[in-house]
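Hello Y.,

Per our agreement to keep a running log of every chain we model this quarter, I'm adding this entry. I've kept the format consistent with earlier entries: sequence first, then predicted structure.
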Amino acid sequence: MLTVREINDPAELNDYRLAWRRLLGETRGGTFFQSLDWLAVYWRHFGADQKLRVLLVFADRELAGILPLAECWERTRAGVVRVLTYPLHGWGSFYGPIGPNPTLTLQVGLAHVAASEREWDLLDLRWIDWEHSDRGRTAGALRAAGLSARRQVWGETAWVDLSGGWESYWCSRGARWRAELRRCERRLTDLGGVRYVHHRPAGTCGGDAGVRWDLFDDCAAIAGESWQGRSTTGTTLTHEPVREFFRAAHEAATHAGGADLHLLYVGDRSAAFAYNIHWGGRVYGLRTGFDPEVALPGAGKVLLAKMLRQCAELGDTLVDLGPGSIDVKRHWLTSVERSYRCTCYGASWRAQALRIKHWWTARRAA
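Predicted structure for the entry above:
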């Protein structure tokens, strides 16, 4: 017998922590952003104006799948609308149901949503990995629940496939690009030597949950000196709206065994950093930066090459360099992957206005 329990209070999720961890380990392409550790930190910092709707799907009283959702207010050209979506908020590239049977979880969970009182204007499931793990499951589950399912591209991200090992990947890069990286490293060495530091703690379960705040603070210092630090609208490590969130997320990731820091020092100065999250052999590039005063000869490039080599040697098969700046990442990436959204429009005039706008935008693009 299949049943659904909806949880709106994050404190109640602690009773399912072990089961959540087990199901995430059985999730194809699962990430740290789908963990309860991440959700707890995210909700503590950004959940005040949202409504949590975590759907637990039980099969014969055993937890079989989890569909985390959240209702939030979003400002659009049609006015402020209430959106029911995944609680990712763009921090990662992809999201979806948790557990080994995503089809069952989506079907049962979305049937529960369809039968519940509708307070949302849009049911907008974003960050769907349609081409690799979803394969149309989300759209099918929406239609099975009697809900519409308009599919649209949501975003793009740059992937680096390391499944063949470092040498195979490195030889696939252009000869001129490889020569340029070697020249950059020689210039940095002439400025006072290059020191590369990598920190990937095994986490509490691995007996290594020590938080290296000194390394994190070096990353934050570089971010503050970079162009990101001068931005008034960004979300880098030092920006006031997210500064404490990043520190809390770093501590949670360290305890969970998901933190992955790479730093490059030129002489005695920190020059560039890459702050990643790793999970299940995959690495996600959360934030990067370089100090322009120290990194003129290309410290960012040198660090990225060292980072990718280290990830390959540790057995990571995929590095997601994140969305945006695809042209800048063209020398590194092996593919550009799209995420999708499946949208169901409510009956409100704002929702219908958005439906028309989305239709017109897609028509013009076509």
